[in-house]
């Protein structure tokens, strides 16, 4: 049994992304509609995800494009306001992701009571937004300084729109990340949000770190649920829940329900087979 059961309530968990619209300070923030509109649109997506039956949600500033690796204070403050206003309406476990700043993600988690964060904690990358460096030792010490030790850390080891600067295979990255940093989960991604995670890549990661939670981080759809969950311990799902399966749209509760019905059917069969084994 993994920590997913304790924190989220089930194995083979589906963590649904609740994408927040551009915020104050972001280039595409709608100053005319203001923060009240951002809160209401986040509420709309949150309720649609919960209505559809997801296991958990993760709030992220997905539309703060182009992303920063040193996120400004106003972004974290705005996200804290949104989650604070919606807190009484959140009925499932939740996490946060301040793209792409690990310390700020932990700050937001500590302020809001989030149970987990997803971030790029390790590595040095050539990315769409320049050289992307990290300092995991300082980040974990920051986690302990602010009293966020209980927050689960989901390490994204295949960053979207970036490539490791060192020539390392996924097995060595996974093994050393687990040995050196004790992550709660490894997230394996495709190139961008909505791009399918390669099943062979998932298999290679899970094989080398069998006792660590491995999550499919992008591109899970109705058509590949069984294949991906047969390998991964769970998934982070965003784009497929949107109207017409398009990243920029709002959540469609009917798509969520159809997806989760298939997940629950798979989970029941998987649990039954596990009992036999």
Automatic annotation (TrEMBL):
> What is this protein's record name?
Sgc region protein SgcQ
Entry similarity comment: Belongs to the BtpA family.
The record's Pfam families line, in alphabetical order, gives: BtpA (PF03437)
The lineage's top-level taxon is Bacteria
The family database entries (InterPro entries) matched by this protein are listed as: BtpA, RibuloseP-bd_barrel
């Amino acid at each position: 049994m993994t920590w997913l059961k304790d924190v989220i309530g089930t194995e083979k968990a589906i963590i649904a992304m609740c994408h927040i619209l551009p915020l104050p300070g972001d280039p595409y923030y709608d100053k005319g509609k203001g923060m009240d509109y951002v809160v209401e649109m986040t509420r709309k997506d949150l309720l649609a995800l919960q209505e559809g039956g997801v296991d958990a949600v993760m709030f992220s500033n997905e539309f703060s494009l182009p992303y920063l690796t040193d996120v400004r204070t106003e972004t974290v403050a705005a996200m804290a306001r949104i989650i604070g206003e919606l807190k009484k309406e959140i009925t499932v476990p939740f996490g946060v992701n301040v793209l792409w700043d690990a310390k700020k993600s932990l700050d937001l988690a500590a302020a809001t009571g989030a149970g987990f964060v997803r971030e790029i904690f390790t590595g040095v990358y050539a990315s769409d937004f320049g050289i992307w460096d990290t300092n995991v030792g300082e980040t974990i010490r920051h986690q302990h300084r602010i009293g966020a030790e209980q927050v689960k850390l989901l390490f994204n080891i295949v960053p979207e729109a970036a490539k490791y600067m060192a020539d390392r295979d996924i097995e060595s990255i996974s093994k050393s990340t687990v040995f050196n940093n004790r992550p709660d989960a490894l997230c394996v991604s495709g190139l961008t949000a909505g791009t399918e995670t390669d099943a062979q890549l998932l298999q290679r990661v899970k094989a080398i770190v069998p006792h660590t939670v491995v999550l499919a981080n992008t591109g899970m759809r109705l058509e590949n649920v069984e294949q991906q969950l047969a390998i991964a311990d769970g998934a982070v799902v965003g784009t497929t829940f949107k109207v017409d399966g398009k990243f920029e749209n709002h959540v469609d509760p009917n798509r969520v329900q159809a997806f989760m019905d298939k997940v629950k059917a798979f989970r029941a069969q998987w649990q039954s087979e596990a009992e036999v084994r």
